[in-house]
Amino acid sequence: CGRSPAAAAAAMALSGVRVLELAGLAPAPLCGMILADFGAQVVRVDRLSRSAISAHGDVQARGKRSVALDLKRPQGAAVLRRLCSGADVLIEPFRHGVMERLGLGPEVLLQENPRLIYARLTGFGQTGKYAKSAGHDINYLALSGVLSKLGRKNENPYAPVNLLADFAGGGVMCALGIVTALFERAKSGRGQVIDASMVEGVAYLSSFLWKSQKVGLWSQPRGENLLDSGAPFYEVYRTSDGKFMAVGAIEPKFYGQLIKGLGLNLDDLPDQMSLLYWPEMKKKFASIFAQKTQAEWCSIFDSTDACVTPVLSIDDAASHQHNKERNSFIKNDQGEISPRPAPVLSRTPAVPSSKRDPFIGEHTEQILLEYGFTKQEIAKLYSDKAIELKNLKSNL
């Protein structure tokens, strides 16, 4: 666009929004990174690095800065209260009751800053039987009902890594809630509390499953339906070089192109939707796909609407022609490749930072000064071991 990085950052959709993200695992860091990618000023509030549990493993810290506080010390908790008085958003990833015990619950912080959006991102939510229970993605999937639908015929249900509940139902849905609350605040001038439950988030994402049950899509046992690996035309097949092709030829016109590309005659085959013949057709398709390499199948199907695509590794995805033409993957200053923020906005697109992730406490002094702390106050907090400073200035 010809704009300087500073001008591009100023033009982003969330420019000027101040976000405090309490350091946590997986979902909350993604939520904060999404907001940072679209222009928000995101500060990650870390535990002190000397803490046994300070290594939170945040690999989604792009565009963030770090302030290190000991929230268990009254002085550290007081610092966060003061930061929240000047912030727009707080992302809190702890189990129910933790923040209240620290004197940092929403009833305290919103009284001091009525415009604050207090986003509580947890697995089970703020109320209910499991509100204070530990859990992970697989547990949230299980309680949502979604896990029961995932898996092949005659196999146990399985969780597809931790993308669905942690990141989609958690981080992404929480970011949506924050942006929605920011929009509403522009009219009312008031903040609010967001109760983002990963169980409910992933259940909401699965609304199609709930609402399509009466149309027969899920009338068969798990792994025997149209979209759960039951159909031969919605399946993954191994190629002769040990790679895979993904087939999604559901509609008859697409199915016809699949059959043509496989060198078969549609008139010689049973009806596409005849469930009785699906197992036999899967074996037939598998034997044909196993006769050519992935590249050979791509040369056959790439120019068609057969809905057949290569299953790319993470490394290969960034170098695929389609993704390269769209600049779908970006590289930071350290040469690390990652997905470009999505979706793409025409006027105010995300301009993700290319700098390395912050060290714990790297920006403590800078951030506290920005939020109105004096150098004398910072020095006192440091001597009280309530904060951690990197590159402590000699005049403190």
Automatic annotation (TrEMBL):
Gene3D superfamilies linked to this entry: Crotonobetainyl-coa:carnitine coa-transferase, domain 1, formyl-coa transferase, domain 3
Q: Which reaction(s) does the protein catalyse, per the Swiss-Prot or TrEMBL entry? A: (25R)-3alpha,7alpha,12alpha-trihydroxy-5beta-cholestan-26-oyl-CoA = (25S)-3alpha,7alpha,12alpha-trihydroxy-5beta-cholestan-26-oyl-CoA; a (2S)-2-methylacyl-CoA = a (2R)-2-methylacyl-CoA; (2R,6)-dimethylheptanoyl-CoA = (2S,6)-dimethylheptanoyl-CoA
Keyword annotations from UniProtKB, A to Z: Isomerase
Q: Name one GO molecular function term.
A: alpha-methylacyl-CoA racemase activity
For this protein, the record's InterPro entries field holds: CoA-transferase_III, CoA-Trfase_fam_III, CoA-Trfase_III_dom3_sf, CoA-Trfase_III_dom_1_sf
Q: Does the keyword Transcription apply?
A: no
Enzyme class, top EC level, equals isomerase
Role, per record:
Catalyzes the interconversion of (R)- and (S)-stereoisomers of alpha-methyl-branched-chain fatty acyl-CoA esters. Acts only on coenzyme A thioesters, not on free fatty acids, and accepts as substrates a wide range of alpha-methylacyl-CoAs, including pristanoyl-CoA, trihydroxycoprostanoyl-CoA (an intermediate in bile acid synthesis), and arylpropionic acids like the anti-inflammatory drug ibuprofen (2-(4-isobutylphenyl)propionic acid) but neither 3-methyl-branched nor linear-chain acyl-CoAs.
- Protein name as it appears in the record: Alpha-methylacyl-CoA racemase
